[in-house]
Design goal:
98 residues; OB fold (Dihydrolipoamide Acetyltransferase, E2P); 3-stranded antiparallel β-sheet; signal
């Protein structure tokens, strides 16, 4: 065989088996849901709230609105902080009554 062909096959074998980088691939599960947040959402338009806390993302609050849109709410907004505080107090009271 020609020496050039052998070298080409050897280089191809090295490139195929060599890792491109040591970085782990980013799966869709590990991506943050909220890329941007809003501060004002009329509370009467909210149908449901979801709270997400994943290792790779900050605390995320997703509101499903009555028109079926989903928006990310800034978790630092005052009304949301008060809502969370009230919900935690309610949970504590119900656990103490058991």
């Amino acid at each position: 065989m020609d020496m050039k062909v052998i070298v080409v096959f050897a280089l191809m074998a090295v490139f195929i088996h060599a890792p491109i980088s040591n970085a782990k691939p980013i799966s869709l599960v590990e991506r943050c849901w909220c890329r941007s947040t809003v501060n004002t959402v009329p509370q009467r338009n909210i149908r449901e709230l979801k709270f997400l806390h994943t290792p790779n993302c900050p605390f995320q609050v997703i509101a499903k609105l009555k028109n079926n849109k989903e928006v990310c709410i800034n978790p630092e907004t005052k009304w949301l902080q008060q809502y969370l505080k009230n919900a935690l107090n309610k949970m504590k009271k119900s656990q103490q009554q058991r």
